[in-house]
Specification:
This is Cof-type HAD-IIB family hydrolase. It holds the Pfam family Hydrolase_3. Keywords: Hydrolase. GO terms for molecular function: magnesium ion binding; phosphatase activity. It contains ten helices and 14 strands. By secondary structure, the chain is of the alpha/beta class. The model has no long low-confidence stretch (mean pLDDT 97).
């Protein structure tokens, strides 16, 4: 079989609802690797939030921060930080709306607010050990590949109207991802595919969230998890079982990558 690139979302695809990797998913990844295929994460998370998962599954390639920071065999092949001037505008607008922000680098994250209940609730759901640091000026001195805006559902509409050069994708009841317009997991995967000099026919993608839609629409061999909302399922070529029901394993069998 021709060697394939299999891009896997983490939360809701590899991770179940308890932020654990089912045994069937671990076995699936190991079997793919033994067959000589490249398994890569495709996630909205920053690299520092999935280091343990990398070690556990022996995965050293990833499309992280919703496509803004791409790595193959631990070498950076693409990065797309947000412009400082744009972040200045976002900071001003968010402060006026009393909406806190977190700025994500590839190896750390910094908040412009020392404490806020929305930040606590949203970040707690990720189960990340590395604490959010308080440094409202970080974006002026360090590369920021993604911001997290904390606001109630629907409040992002104002930002969408105001910032046409940014994209806002909700991932939690109290938070949305903020990335450059045109940035996505799909774009990041395209950079990885070009780096690997692979045919698009040999690329596969699995996901379940709103930030997976562009990826599932653009990758020829796409699979949505059974736990995905209908709008995400409709973006994929195939729908597998729920992540808690060995969904990844079954999906890989459905597309012929596992026996």
């Amino acid at each position: 079989m021709t060697k394939k690139l299999i891009c896997l979302d983490i939360d809701g695809t590899l991770f179940n609802e308890e932020k654990q990797v089912p045994d069937s998913a671990k076995l699936a990844v190991a079997n793919l690797q033994q067959a000589g295929h490249t398994v890569a994460f495709a996630t909205g998370r920053a690299p520092f939030t999935f280091r343990k998962l990398q070690q556990e599954l022996e995965v050293d390639s990833y499309v992280s921060l919703n496509g803004q920071y791409v790595v193959h065999h631990d070498d950076v092949v693409y990065k797309n930080p947000l412009h400082t001037a744009v972040l200045d505008e976002l900071e001003h607008h968010a402060t006026a709306g009393n909406h806190p922000l977190i700025y994500l680098g590839h190896d750390n994250w910094f908040s412009n607010t020392s404490h806020h209940p929305y930040i606590q609730k949203a970040i707690r759901s990720l189960k990340v050990e590395q604490k959010v640091m308080y440094d409202p000026a970080f974006y002026r001195v360090g590369d920021v590949y993604q911001a997290l805006l904390f606001c109630e559902d629907g409040s992002e509409a104002d930002y969408m109207r105001t910032f046409g050069h940014l994209e806002f994708i909700r991932w939690h009841d109290y938070s949305v991802d903020v990335i450059p317009a045109g940035g996505s997991k799909a774009a990041g995967i395209n950079h990885l595919v070009q780096h690997l000099q692979m045919s698009p026919d040999d690329v596969y993608a699995f996901g379940d969230g709103l930030n997976d839609m562009a990826m599932l629409q653009s990758v020829k061999n796409s699979v949505a998890m059974g736990n995905a909302p209908d709008i995400v399922k409709n973006a994929a070529g195939t729908v597998t079982k729920h992540v808690n029901d060995d969904g990844l394993w079954h999906g890989l069998r459905m597309v012929g990558l596992l026996d």
